[in-house]
Amino acid sequence: MKFGLLHLFEDAQGRSERAFLAENVELVDFADQVGLDGVWLAEHHFSDYGVMPSTQVFASYLASRTRRVRIGTGVAVLPFHNPIRVAEEFAFIDLLSDGRLDFGVGRGYQPGEYAGYGIPFAEGTDRFRESLAIVRQAWETGKVTHAGKHFRFDGVTPRPRPFQRPHPPIFGASFNPETIKYQALQRLNLLFSILLAPPEPIAEYRRILRDQGEEPDAYRIGGLAFVYVDEDRERALRDFEAPCMWYFRTFSRLIPAARYPDGEGFYRGLHETLKAYVDLYDRGKLPFATMVDEGPFSHGFLVGTPEEVRTKLERLRASYEGMTDLLCWTRLGGLDHKRVMRSMELLVEKVVAPMRRDDAAASAAPRG
Fold it and tell me: How far from each other are the two terminal CA atoms of the chain, in whole angstroms?
């Protein structure tokens, strides 16, 4: 399994932007030095939920700063950008990093971000799919001729071409079971939230790949989870409680109850579940420890001692067949930076390293 860090660049405490950017850079440096596999940058706009207006800019900076860690977008929101420029800029990043780019893309899910760019929210899916087709054509053929609803290009030749051929790994991100199916039909690698997606849509993704004549094990599946490790379980829960509740409150505020062109029922249900969750917590009916251990989102919490986190991660690997990557979301909602760094040290030393040793031993063992 590959281990990476998600960087949302949230500003939960109203601190200076320079300060929390520096903390994120320190985490990336740590990941590069200790041999974690990837860092994933999430594009967001116009709120404290995420201050990352350009994954391209930050990825370029990291390409020159790091040496080993892969640089992923988790995700670049295609409807907000000209797809030719996307193809050129990310190809350039792939060259600067000597082929370390993992290109994660999505439609975005926050109406306020669309409004800020003057783009109708209802156009999101069409714009995403059209843009993705153009980026793939640019990378695969070196020339784009396209006449669509939102873009027209006549023989444009984007430069440069990517370092990885035919292009960097492309990941489609989704919360929604219907769009998870779309990623499989498009033969994309997959990014999903373990908090929000049960194992069944992931199994369906692999089945659709197989039905198209693809080998599912050739595709990467990255699952996002809350990760916080401490030698003391109770301290881990205390540290993570307020940041986690900040996330649930903020996320439920930013996602719409409906208005999605596809999967409307899924998002309405998610909105209502999150509101009910927060309400139960506020009324003292749902202790945080219960939230971590039980209930609809508990499988996405890897919070506790190293032994507890490893045990739960092994269960996740068994439940989510084919999951190749874990995206660790540990710098959450204003959590103290020193505690985040200590958590990551424990994760690497007492979870990642032993699992890698066990995986290597299992691979080397004679079969049959």
Answer: 23
The letter for the amino acid at 61 is Y
- Nearest Cα residue to 223 out of 192, 195, 253, 252: 192
Residue spans of the domains in the chain: they are 2-361
For the stretch 182-198, pLDDT in tens is 999 999 999 999 999 99
CA dist 327 and 2 (Å) reads: 9
Q: Provide the H-helix boundaries in the chain.
A: 17-34, 55-65, 83-96, 111-116, 124-141, 177-185, 199-211, 233-254, 264-282, 288-293, 306-319, 337-347, 353-364
Sort residue 334 into left (φ over 0), alpha (ψ -120 to 50) or beta. left
Instruction: Give me the amino acid identity at 240.
Output: F
Place of tokens 């990093």: 97
pLDDT tens digits, residue range 260-276?
Answer: 555 556 777 888 888 89
d(CA 263, CA 346): 39
**How many helices (H) and strands (E) would you count in the chain?**
13, 14
**pLDDT value for 258:** 47
Which pLDDT score, from 0 to 100, does residue 81 have?
A: 99
Token pair recorded at residue 166? 């035919």
C-beta separation of 7 from 51 below 8 A? no
What is the spatial distance between Cα 248 and Cα 195, in angstroms, rounded to a whole number?
11
Share of the chain above pLDDT 70, in %: 97
Q: Which CATH class is domain 2-361?
A: alpha beta
> Model's pTM, two decimal places?
0.96
pLDDT at 368 over 80: no
